[in-house]
Structures are given as structure tokens and as C-alpha cells.
Amino acid sequence: MNSKTNKNYWDSIVIGSGIGGLVTATQLAAKGAKVLVLERYIIPGGSSGAFFRGDYTFDVGASMIFGFGKKGYTNLLTRALADIGQECETIPDPAQLVYHLPNDKEVIVSRDFDQFISNLTLLFPHEKSGIKSFYKICWDVFNCLDSMPLLSIEDPVYLAKVFFKSPLSCLGLARWLPFNVGDVARRYIKDPSLLKFIDIECFCWSVMPADKTPMINAGMVFSDRHAGGINYPKGGVGVIAQKLVKGLEEHGGEISFKSRVTKILLDGKKAIGVKLATGEKLYARTIISNATRWDTFGGEGVKEPLINEKNTPSSEKKWMNRYKPSPSFLSIHLGVKESCIPKNSHCHHLILNDWIEMEEEQGVIFISIPTLLDKSLAPQGHHIIHAFTPSSINEWNTLNPANYEEKKKIACDRLVSKIERIFPGLSTSISHKEIGTPKSHRRFLGRHNGSYGPIPAMRLPGLLPMPFNSTAIKKLYCVGDSCFPGQGLNAVAFSGFACAHKIGADLGLNPWELPD
Fold first, then answer.
1. Which H or E run contains 286?
2. Distance of alpha carbon 230 from alpha carbon 148, whole angstroms
3. Cβ atoms of residues 103 and 96 within 8 Å
């Protein structure tokens, strides 16, 4: 049954086609492995996918994309596509984000670093030195990352090679591994309002304040937005997953849609295959779960994890004590008349009316208007607005259908009203509307409670407690935002490179040389 001549036997089976899973799959296929990706839904990409309504192309998740620059090792999406002969045409965004903060403060994070520092210093002139010192540390971290190939730090051979290639960078990164952003920011910054700004700088991509956001991640994000910049893929974010699937198939791999995995099959403490909802069983030398750690190993509220509770390793139970699921999101996708968006507007915005609301239910509002960069995503004379705000599934789980629909309508109207702070008249300009709740994220993306990803349940020392790709079950690996280095499209691409490298080392597929 497990012979390599069986058509259902693979080198690797990847559960889920999120970006982490697809990068793992394509990297392995490029090394010559026989790879199968199993996706429960009808399109690839997970929260980085797309859906279509008439002439509208909507991004499922955010459109603020890191990792699409041209130079350096941190441009992981560019590298992942290039390794399988693919490329995305991108459109540079002149700013990462416009913050609309309490007391009518506004900060534009320009692509130009000096301009951003100037913008921030105008608001906090007495912290000029501290601002420069803090963001210099971020650049130091980024430059260390950008000087070395980012692969699996679980592989001692890789570590030896990369240390020989870039010893100072390795030591520089090791220095910051135990630290969170708040630890570093307070060394240089004293103004409580500026420290709150550093909190929202972290929250906008990690959904955590500075005290819980690892410094390594911040160094990547706070600097890459100026180095490689924010670059939007022409045709929408879903193009990234489509290109990865194309490259996978051109390198002999396969993807199967509407293929929901219900169990990971074990032989003792070794993963040997998967069981589908249809009852079909498929076998492989290695199994990779791109599901969340909770959906893989169980936890509170998970009814049918991929691994039975009796087989869940103690290391995973320890992880569940340290981390908890972040909130999900209430999302609205709007088609609006072009006239309600001023022509000089930026693509990405964040609205926070009161600092005490930052971690509260529906406190922060994130806004993307990708048609300011790519007009082809909407019919002529219209824009897309994708707005989302953190929301717990507990707010939605117990409602009957009628109350659920009513709550969606009320929440949507409230969200639109808040957005009118920066785009007056929005409510009368809507020509198309879609509302998604945490239940939608759970249903369509297959994520535990619709969660964005894990966040610390307590204050932890930087990235040190974050699990890597290997698990205590032999031949079972995890990839995605539940693994080092965490949330974000570029971060899960990093985990994909690392996972494929670790598996490649275990299967003897890796080339001797490090990537150029």
C-alpha cells in the first residue's frame, strides 16, 4: 500500500494552499520532489486569495504586501516565484499606510524613510533623537536579515554555512531574538504618546502591542516598507497564489481542490498519510500541515483536529498554554462610486478614535483601496474599498440566522459611518456590498475561530518560544503563521522556505550551495 509505485504515494502532501503551504510545495517541487497540495476550498491562497463579483476583483485579505522588492534576501515572494520560473508584475505604493489617530493626529508612512522620520518628528520634535535611534535599530535587524539566505534554522548544516558567510549578521540577529519591540522602544523613547504610536505600528500587522511583538519581525516590517517597499500585484493579491500553483504544476506537482483532509494518518509516532472527507486515503514520505496549530493538534473548542488528542505531543500542549488565537475580523468589501475617493488619496489607512480601543472589539479599522493602484479591479467609474476590524467569533457564534443577519447589517453601517471620518459621503456612494464575519473566515478559510493567527497568551521573550516547522511526530511538519516567524504574508513565505529546506535536508534533496 505504501510502495512508491502506488499513484497515491508522494514525497510530500501539503494540507492547505495558503501562501506558506504553496511556498513549501513549490520549493520542494523545484528540488525534484513529487508534491501534492490538498485544498478544501475552490481557489488557492487562503486569506491571500481573491473572489469575483461581476467586474469586481476583491482581495480576500489585506492588500499591503511586503516581500515584493527586487533586491536582497528579504524579498521572499519575489524569490519564491522566481525559483519556479514565475513573476508578478507589481505596482509600487508611495506609502505603506496613513494613520488617523486620536486627537486628529495623522502620520503618513512614506516609502521614503527620511520623509517618514520627518513626518513623525514634526509631531514629536522633543523625541527626534529617540525616533532616529529606535528606527536605526530596526534597520540594523533588517540589514542582518537581508544579508543572508533565509532558510531553516533547524538545519545545523545551513546554520554553519550561513554563519561562515555572514558571521556578524548571525550574531546581530541572535542578539535581538529574545526581545520584543516595547523593550527596545523604551530604551530610546519616553513620551507616552509616541510609545502608543509604536504600539499601533506593531498592531497594524501583528494585531499585538509592542510589548508582545517580536523585535525581529518589527525590524523586517519597519524597514522593508522603505527598502523593498509596498508593491501591489497587478490583477490583485490572488494572482500570487495563482502563479505559485502554475509554477507548482510546471514542476510536476499537483493541487486538488475541494479535497478536505479530516485526519493525518499515523503509524505509531510517524505520519504516513492523510484521510479525506470522502474516505480516500493518500500516503507520503512527509506530511505538511498549513492548517493552524489548533486545527492540526486540537485545543479548546476544536472538535475534529487532524491529529487525535491522544496523539498530541506534549510540546504542542505547552505551545497552546503560551499562545492563544488572535481575534478574527469583521470585513466589508464595497464597490463605490469613484467620486467619493479623492484622487490624491493613499491606498491604505488605519483609523483609531481612542487609544483605549486599540485591543477592543472592533476598535481599530483597517482600510484598503487597491483600485487607487490598479484600476482594472473594478468597473469604470468605481473603486473598491476593503475595510476590516478585529472581531471575536464569540460575538457571532450564538446568534440565530435572523439575529446574525441583523447584527451584520448594524456592524457594517457602524463601520461605514466611522470610515466617513476620512471619506465623507461614503454611505451614499455604495454600489456593491459584501459582509464577512469571523464565521465566514472559519467557514471559507478553514481557520480555527476564523483567527488571524496566534498571539502570546502572556508576555514572552521575543521569537524564542515560537515553534519551528518540525513537530514531535516524525515526518509531520507545520507551516504558516503558527510557526516561526509568525503572521504576515512575507512571514509565512519565510516559514515556507524554512519548511521546504528542513524537509529537503531530511530527504537529501538540498543543493550544497546556499542561494545566491
1. strand 281-289
2. 21
3. no
